[in-house]
Structure formats: structure tokens, C-alpha cells
Amino acid sequence: MTNPTIRPPRRTPFIDLLDLAIRAGRRVGAVAPARLEKAHLLERAAEATGLDDFGDPWFERPMDVLLDAIADEARLNAAGDFSAMQQFHHVLRDRLLAQMWFKRHPEILARAMPRPVVIVGPMRSGTTRMHRLLASDRRFSHMRSFETISPVPRPDFEEVLEGRREDFRPVLARRIMQVARLANPRTLSIHPTGPCEPEEELGLLVASMWGMKHEAQWHVPGYGRWCEGESAVPAYRHMADLLRLVGWSQQASTLRPWILKTPQHMLDLPALLEVFPDARLIFTHRDPLKVVGSAASLAWNQTIIYSDHADPAGIGREWLHKTSLQVERMRAARASIPAGRMIDVQYEDMERDWRGTMERVYRFLGLDIAPAMPRMEDYMRRAGALKRRPHAYSLEEFGLTAGDVLDRLGDYARAFDVPIEGEAPDEAPRRRLRVS
Hints:
Blueprint: H1 13-27, H2 38-49, H3 60-74, H4 78-104, E1 117-120, H5 127-135, H6 145-149, H7 157-161, H8 169-183, H9 187-190, H10 202-206, H11 212-217, H12 221-228, H13 233-250, E2 259-261, H14 264-267, H15 269-275, E3 280-285, H16 288-306, H17 312-334, E4 342-346, H18 347-352, H19 354-365, H20 373-386, H21 402-415
Parallel strand pairs: 1-2, 1-3, 3-4
């Protein structure tokens, strides 16, 4: 049971006011009621675009399960179901527009994506820092935040390429981020970003109604359990095609490897490697006490926006389960990955000596780090300015103890030589990590 004297933070008054306004608008007919029904959502997206090809219909399976879980489990407030309607509409509209672009420019799907570098680690294990440091190197391609939000260009994008029009997507991303800061300003300290900052590709998996983003914003454990039993290959194939579209919209060279990262890959490594068979993998590791507490805090700060019934102890249990499953599946998948295609990086090593750690990563990648170092140093200076305050959280807020976490993840920490807060290095036998 959650300690009643240690409580996670409340949501901002902005959401309470927005919720009241939406409810009042619905009472007088000024705001339409939410209709989270698949047929209605598909029809609305088709009407908005004048298109009817959503691509591979596989996405409808997770969509059905997600909509059922929202109806049965999420207990959304008015702001929550209004936001969900907008999110589904945005994703479905982008699916339609993506197929339009593939037909208009068949060369998009022929774009090569050689030897991507994929950062794989639990939520809050330093994957963002690693991703943004590597994205500083112009020898790689990377997603930007506005492309994660809106990976598919609008139908007039050829005019953007010709210099006759500005891309509206960064403007939209800036507006969305402004609203997100009003809804919960803590997101700025948890995950600092901006419209053009390097960002993960989780939004490309959401395009197939797949991934932990849904579980981090809504209480949908039924959907989570269903996804855990399904193959993610169709979602990753669509993700790869959207990456090709993003690369085409950036006019980026197909010779530049992509830098990818999202904690979702921990669960879906077999699917990732089926779609990107020559991927090189950077595994990040952090004290599981920090990982679980930080992940629960991230999910809490999202869930409280959309529901009035968020349960901190339930969120703690869910993200302990999710983190444990991520680690279990990661360890199982590594057994079939050639040693020369993966490297392990400790969060604490990056904290102590990020330059030396990145030099080791670059040796693994077979690249000279010198050309990238000035831009990496600039990123680290900007990151310090962007992160205005540390992310504060505790296990106790979410009904967990260190013992609960280490019962599930202590073996992982020992196997990968991950330092645990409060534990001396010689308290348990450990093996040193190799570039493997």
C-alpha cells in the first residue's frame, strides 16, 4: 500500500479548468461528445483527408484492443477522452497521408537504411543522452521532435522542398509542447525537448497503435498484456517505411546510418532485428532502483492529466512489471546477437566521464570521434541549460521498496555490473562487462 505521507505530485489547475470547460461545452452542445469507436474514427479520418487507404490493416488489431482497454480500464476524464479523440485522429490521418506519399513517390520505399545504430535500454537509463550525443554527429541521420509528433508531411510538402512554403510541422510541435507544459510543467525536467531536438521514434510505432506510449499515458493494462503476447514485426515494418519517408522529407543521404532509440525496443528486439538485420546495438544500463522509480514517475505525470483515478501504487506495480519484462526479453534476445554487434554502456560511466565513454562507443562503431566532439560538447552545454531542475521522484511514492525492485531486478544488476545505490561494489560477486 502507498505510504499516505509520501504522495506523488498533483496535476496542474490548468487540466482541472480544461476538464470543466469541456464538460460545460458538451452540456450546451458546443463540444462534441467523445466517440472512441473504431468505425467512427476511421470514417472521420477518411473524410478529413479524402483518402481511404490506411495501408497494412494489421494495425486494426491493436487498435481494437486499445479501444476496449480505454473503455474498460482507463477511466478517462473529459480532457482525457477529448485528447484521445485528437490523438487517434492524428495517427489515422497520418496513416492515410503516408500511403498517399508512397504512391506519389515510389522511390521513398526504395530508400536504403544501412546499418542503423540502435540504443536499447530501459526507460530513464540514459538513452536520450546517448541518442542526442550521437545525433550531434552529422555522419548519422536522426528524427527530430516535430517529426516524431508528425512524421508524415502535409500534402503540399513539395512546395516546402521547393522553398515556396514553410513546413508547418515544427509550428504545430511548438504549440503542442506549449500546451503540454501548461498541462504538466514537470515534463520539462523529466524529458527536456524542443521542436527540433533529436527525438526517439516511438511515435512511428504509435502509428500502428503499438507501444508503451499508450501505457504511459493511460491505465490500459489489458492492452499491455495483449501486446506482450504478440509479434511486433508489422509495427516495425511500418516504422521502417515511415523512417524512409522522414529521410526523404529531410532530403538526407541514404548512406547515412540512422540513430534510433526507444525503450520499446527492449520488448521487441526480435522484431527490430528482423526488420533491421544489420543493426548495431548500444545497450544502456542504470541502477534498477532509479529506473523503476523514474519510469513510474514519468507514467504518473502523464496519467494524471487524462484520468481522475490514477493509482500511484498501481502505477508502481505496472512499471516494475514492465521494466522486469524489458530486461528479461533483452537478455533472452542478446543470446542470438553476435558479440561484435553490441556494446554495453553504464549510466554511471556517462555521468563520470561522458567523453571517455563516447570514445569507447566510437571505437565500437569504427569511427573517429574527433569530428563530432565539438558538437557533442555544445549539446552537453545546451542540455544543462535546458534541464532547469532535477527530476525528483521516489519508490515510496508508488508503493514500492528497494527490496521489491531488487527481488525482480537484482540478478540483472549483478549480471551486468550495474551499481546499485547504497550497495558497496564488493557486496555481491560481479563480472566485468565486455564490448559484447
